[in-house]
Each structure stands twice: as C-alpha cells, then as structure tokens.
Amino acid sequence: MPSLRLSDTHVEDYEHIWKTQSAVRMTVDFLARNIAQLGLHVYRRKGDSDRERLTKHPLAALIQRPNGQMTRYRFLDKLMHDMGIFDQSYWIKVRDPKSGAVIGLLHQPPQWVIPRGRARMTPEEFEISDTDGRKVYPAADVLFFRGYNPFSDVGGISPIEGLRDTLLEAYAATKQRDQLLRNAARMSGYIERPLGAEWSVDTRDRFRAQWQAQYAGDGPSAGGTPILEDGMSFKANSQSSKELQYV
Q1: How far is CA 212 from the centre of its chain?
Q2: I need a labelling partner for 96 at 20 to 30 A (CA). Which of 67, 113, 142, 176 fits?
Q3: CB–CB of 102/95 below 8 Å?
C-alpha cells in the first residue's frame, strides 16, 4: 500500500493523509475541481498550421461520457485527484465484444493496482485486486496516467512525499499537544541513580526498554508522570514551550 511513515509506530496511507490533513485535501480538491471544469476536445490535424475540431468522433464521445454513470467532469475530477494523491491513475478499457473498439472507461483506485511484467522500465500487465478477487489485464487494456519517476516508467511518485518533513512535524506537534492535554505534564530530562548502587547490565537494559515503551514516543503514558525505582531521581533538562516561543 502506498503510505508514509510518520513515526516508528505510525504509518498512514496516502488516501488517509488526504482525508485527514486539511491543507493536503484543500490543495488537491482545488486543483481537481478547477481542472475538471476545463474543456477537453478532440482535433484532427490539418497540416502544420491548422486543425479541425471533431465533435462526433468516438474519442470525443468517450471523453464526454466515459461510462454510463460518469460525465466528463467526474472523469477529470477523479483523474486529477488520483494524480494529486498518488501521481498515477488507472482506467480499464471496456471493449465492444464484436468489434473490439473501446466503448467505455472504468476507474480503478490506484491502491488496488500493481504493475507487473519482466520489463524493467514499463509495465506489461496490471494486477487488480478488489472485493471480487484478483484479475490481470494486459497493458493494452489499461489507460495508465503517471507522473515523472526518475527510476522507472512504472508509476509516478506521490506529491505527498514532497511534504514528508512538513507532515512529520505536524504529526509530532499534534501528538505532543494531545499528550499534554490528556496527561497534563511532559517530563524531559535524565534519570539519576545513587552512586555505587548495584545495577546489572540486564537490569539496566530491561529498565531502559520498559521506560521507552511506556513514556517515550507513542507510549501509552508519554507525557505523564513516571514512577521510578527506589533511589532514582529525575533531573529535568528541557526548555518550556514559552522559552522556545513555540505556538
């Protein structure tokens, strides 16, 4: 599944990021809605300086009504949402059983599709897994849109990857605020033990692992007040949000 790792324990799919991150959704929706309103016409080239618009050509009819349930606007809207979230879009060609001509296009969510084939750079077939099971379509039966990828022509690279650092920061900040509101405290510093206290390597490693699992990162008590073993003391070593001028 195309996804983005936001912490050691938390991974979000691209579509979930679009659904939950207001800035990502607003940008993708804005682009998709405005591009979908544009006209998409078919022309026949007549020399180097002239062209003729074709309104009754089968391709023009297909663009205006890709299938019985979809208009041109919905077709372009879905296409641009796919490109904005995944940088690739897949449409199955529906063919006339007698003539073999393409008479419709059916959208396939990119997270359902896996390009396959022996060729390193271009897909030879597409494997689609949905609620009806797994099906494999030859490349000739799939309309495949993709953005640029410096490593292959199998698929683009999601624009969301370019927001990785911003989304990581937003996730960490949201997590910190949530922990602060739930636990009303955030301890940052180091633990001090009495000089000469016996502490084996195994005991020390076990205590460290338990502390990290309980109070660090996404631990259930992160931001809460820890309970230390006998003789231990916690030495705070951090700046407050006010000192950091952090909002």
Answers
A1: 28
A2: 113
A3: yes
82 near 144, Cβ under 8 Å?
A: no
Q: Which of 27, 32, 10 is nearest to 160 (CA)?
A: 27
Dihedral over Cα of 79, 82, 87, 88: its sign: negative
The model's pTM: 0.70
| Rg of the chain in Å (alpha carbons) | 27
51, 78 Cβ separation under 8 angstroms: no
Q: Which two tokens stand for residue 72?
A: 């041109």
Q: Please write the tens of the pLDDT for every residue from 148-195.
A: 988 878 888 899 888 888 888 888 888 877 776 666 555 566 677 777
Tokens of 133: 């099971």
Of the candidate ranges 53-57, 63-67, 217-221, 239-243, the one whose mean pLDDT is the lowest:
239-243
- State the pairing for strand pair 189-192/125-130: unpaired
Looking at the DSSP assignment, which residues form a beta bridge with residue 52? 44
Cα–Cα dist 218/221, whole Å: 8
CB 55 within 8 A of CB 72: no
